[in-house]
Amino acid sequence: MTEQQLPAWADPSVPPAVLDAQGVSRRGLLRRAGLFGAAFALGGAAGPAAAATGRGHGGEDPRLAYLVGDHHVHSVYSHDAKYTFSQQARAAARYGLDWMVFNEHSNFGHASYGAALEHKEILRARAANPRQLIFQGLEWYIPAAEHCTVFAAPGPHEVDLLTRFELAYDGKLLGYTEGAAGAADTARNEAHAVKAVKWLAEQRRSGYVDDVLVLANHPLRLGIDSPHELRAWRDAAPEIMIGMEGAPGAQGAAIPGWRGATSIRGEYENKPSAQSWADYPADAYLTYGGFDWATATVGGLWDSMLAEGRLFSVTTNSDNHRTVFDTWKNGDWPAGQNFDNTGRLPDPVKTDTPQAGSDFWPGQFSRTHVGVTRYGYRAVMTGLREGRVWLDHGHLLDGLEVRLRREHSNGRGVTLGGRLRVRKGEKLTLEITVTTASRPNPQGILPQLAHVDVIRGAVRGAVSDRDTWRAPDTKVVRTTDVSGRKGTYTLRVPVTVGDESCYLRLRGSDGNRNGTGYLGASVDPHGPIPHEPGNGDPWADTWFYANPIFVDVVG
Q1: Nearest to 128 by CA among 13, 19, 2
Q2: If we measure between CA atoms, which residue out of 162, 156, 84 comes closest to residue 125?
Q3: Cα(378)–Cα(99) distance, rounded to whole angstroms?
Q4: 394: alpha, beta or left? (left if phi > 0; alpha if psi -120 to 50)
Q5: Strands 241-247 and 212-217
Q6: To 10 degrees, what angle do helices 158-169 and 186-205 make?
């Protein structure tokens, strides 16, 4: 594969004068991380061992730069999408993405034709623009459940892995869709999903591919990803099945006057069905500040998994199929052709009329930030696996750096996804360095962060009830009003270690829409809330979320 080149904002040979405001801001963050130029190209600031493993010296995490990406993008190689591969790649570059995953829907046409055709385009694009990291992936229809992103590191077997996996394990292609409690095929189908994750893990262990990752997509959209299934996929291979979409795509679905009076952000417009897990409340089928109920509920499903003491990451992305207000329409099929016998839609055709759609372009609204020690494909995958992830909507922040240190320590401490081993009674400091938005977002709004919330939960170990979705000891423990603060600043939050292990995570918003959280004011006094159907302007209600840091009490 062509040697990876640094993006313009990280390349010292590119003068600052030719960078846009976003590039200048990101270059400043990179310099502060000590990873500018050769250090970022080679992972030198972290040292050779850290560059390979992602860990720093002495149990502390290395300095990091954050690469912005989207793991859920569709093109003409998905049966229900619209745009060409090059249209999506250009959009991603325009909105500042460093990495993206084309994860086309599984389909017999895709497995037989489309995956190989797209792979040729990806190879050409990688060679033509080595500053952009383009992964090939698959949107897997999980047996008995929803969808997942599956993607591999570039290499000679990346497309073979995906097509073999698709044909052997896809629920839609196999007819393994039944997931209702007590149905005759449900146990078989759920077991096949676990086998699928284990198979991917074996391909990595054997060296058939350098790396492969899985993330659950829009987990509560239909309510068919039960808590026990999420835990089963994670437990099958936690180094492969690393997390879920904390916020779905389709964030433009409820722009006022666009799709109708019942529309909801994320297209979370469903009711429970026979396939849904029965113990999810009706409110679980909505989004809260654009985020899935599983993530947005403090003390809810995500927290119940973190309270077991095991990392499970969240992400956000565009899930782009059809961009809001866009005027391209699907092209017409030539006689005798269809998706099943070509694996590719006809190129779209430009019109003068806005077409139906719920999505934003990759990077236009939803961004997943991944902490890395160098620039490259494996670095992104390592950062995702280790949980060095934070996400924002509407370009709410330019940067976020989080470190948990022992009080009075001069070390770097640990960061998102990390673990700090401490003794009972030790005093720690959580340092939250925020870099505010330096430019208007694609909507022309200069985002302003209003508050930063610290959420703390007790770690109690593996649950006896695999279907629990509650973490009763998790709550918001501190809120800091940061309205009006500009530039880069650091919040220092004292943390005292108690008798048991715990985790800390962060979120914040523009402050435009807050209310009592789903589990009550004592748990979350000012969390995200659902919008009125048909009245969900996403640009007026933006949030950031960050992965947890674990505190392990050892004595």
Answers
A1: 2
A2: 84
A3: 11
A4: left
A5: parallel
A6: 160
- Count other Cβ atoms within 10 Å, centred on residue 349: 12
Structure tokens belonging to residue 309? 């003491």
Rg (alpha carbons) of the chain, rounded to whole number: 22
Q: Residue 370, by phi and psi: left (phi above 0), alpha (psi -120 to 50) or beta?
A: beta
CA-angle at 393, arms to 391 and 395, nearest 5°: 95
At 385 the three-state DSSP class reads helix
Taking the C-alpha atoms of residue 404 and residue 426, their distance in angstroms, rounded to an integer, is 12
Report which of 532, 250, 263 is spatially closest to residue 364, judged by C-alpha positions. Answer: 250
Nearest in space to 455 (alpha carbons), one of 308, 349, 224, 299:
299
Asked if 492 contacts 473 with a C-beta cutoff of 8 angstroms, the reply is no
Q: How many helices (H) and strands (E) does the chain have?
A: 14, 22
Quote the DSSP letter at residue 251.
Answer: T
The secondary structure of residue 282, as a DSSP letter, is: G
DSSP β-bridge partners for residue 328:
350
What is the rounded CA–CA span in Å between residue 141 and residue 167? 11
Whether residue 100 contacts residue 133, with contact meaning beta carbons closer than 8 Å, is answered with yes
Alpha-carbon distances of 141 from 31, 147, 244, rounded to whole Å: 42, 5, 14
Q: What's the farthest any 2 CA atoms get from each other in the chain?
A: 74
Kind and range of the H or E run holding 404: strand 397-406
Closest CA to 400 of 24, 92, 64, 57: 64
Q: Residue 196 phi/psi, 5° resolution?
A: -60, -45
For residue 205, the tally of other CB atoms under 10 A from its CB is: 11
pLDDT in tens, the chain (555 residues): 446 789 999 999 999 999 988 899 999 999 999 999 999 998 754 444 444 444 544 478 999 999 999 999 999 999 999 999 999 999 999 999 999 999 999 999 999 999 999 999 999 999 998 999 999 999 999 999 999 999 999 999 999 999 999 999 999 999 999 999 999 999 999 999 999 999 999 999 999 999 999 999 999 999 999 999 999 999 999 999 999 999 999 999 999 999 999 999 999 999 999 999 999 999 999 999 999 999 999 999 999 999 999 999 999 999 999 999 999 999 999 999 999 999 999 999 999 999 999 999 999 999 999 999 999 999 999 999 999 999 999 999 999 999 999 988 888 999 999 999 999 999 999 999 999 999 999 999 999 999 999 999 999 999 999 999 999 999 999 999 999 999 999 999 999 999 999 999 999 999 999 999 999 999 999 999 999 999 999 999 999 999 999 999 997
Helices 158-169 and 115-128: crossing angle in degrees, nearest 10, is 150
Cross-strand partners of 432 = 402, 491
**Positive or negative torsion for Cα 270, 517, 442, 313:** negative
Q: Select from 312, 508, 244 the least CA-distant residue to 393.
A: 508
